[in-house]
Amino acid sequence: MSEQFLYFLQQMFNGVTLGSTYALIAIGYTMVYGIIGMINFAHGEVYMIGSYVSFMIIAALMMMGIDTSWLLVAPDSWAPL
């Protein structure tokens, strides 16, 4: 395969990943607004705390020499289709 096609596939994967993240955030906003009728302005902070905690845990495990690839792949294999 050509280098341009591989770059295109990588960018498609990045786009789908980012779009899925945006969709999950939008679903969270919709559910909170639908249930309590108010917009939760702390919603983004919850996502950022989760991402920072995940990053720190993975970085700490990698510094101890523990393989962390299973942390990144395993949740995707359990997700419903």
TrEMBL record:
<feature type="transmembrane region" description="Helical">
    <location>
        <begin position="53"/>
        <end position="73"/>
    </location>
</feature>
<dbReference type="GO" id="GO:0005304">
    <property type="term" value="F:L-valine transmembrane transporter activity"/>
</dbReference>
<dbReference type="InterPro" id="IPR001851">
    <property type="entry name" value="ABC_transp_permease"/>
</dbReference>
<keyword id="KW-0029">Amino-acid transport</keyword>
<keyword id="KW-0997">Cell inner membrane</keyword>
<keyword id="KW-0813">Transport</keyword>
<dbReference type="InterPro" id="IPR052157">
    <property type="entry name" value="BCAA_transport_permease"/>
</dbReference>
<dbReference type="GO" id="GO:0015808">
    <property type="term" value="P:L-alanine transport"/>
</dbReference>
<keyword id="KW-0812">Transmembrane</keyword>
<dbReference type="GO" id="GO:0005886">
    <property type="term" value="C:plasma membrane"/>
</dbReference>
<dbReference type="Pfam" id="PF02653">
    <property type="entry name" value="BPD_transp_2"/>
</dbReference>
<feature type="transmembrane region" description="Helical">
    <location>
        <begin position="20"/>
        <end position="41"/>
    </location>
</feature>
<dbReference type="GO" id="GO:0015188">
    <property type="term" value="F:L-isoleucine transmembrane transporter activity"/>
</dbReference>
<dbReference type="GO" id="GO:0015192">
    <property type="term" value="F:L-phenylalanine transmembrane transporter activity"/>
</dbReference>
<dbReference type="GO" id="GO:0042941">
    <property type="term" value="P:D-alanine transmembrane transport"/>
</dbReference>
<protein>
    <submittedName>
        <fullName>High-affinity branched-chain amino acid transporter permease LivH</fullName>
    </submittedName>
</protein>
<keyword id="KW-0472">Membrane</keyword>
<dbReference type="GO" id="GO:0015190">
    <property type="term" value="F:L-leucine transmembrane transporter activity"/>
</dbReference>
<dbReference type="GO" id="GO:1903806">
    <property type="term" value="P:L-isoleucine import across plasma membrane"/>
</dbReference>
<keyword id="KW-1003">Cell membrane</keyword>
<comment type="similarity">
    <text>Belongs to the binding-protein-dependent transport system permease family. LivHM subfamily.</text>
</comment>
<keyword id="KW-1133">Transmembrane helix</keyword>
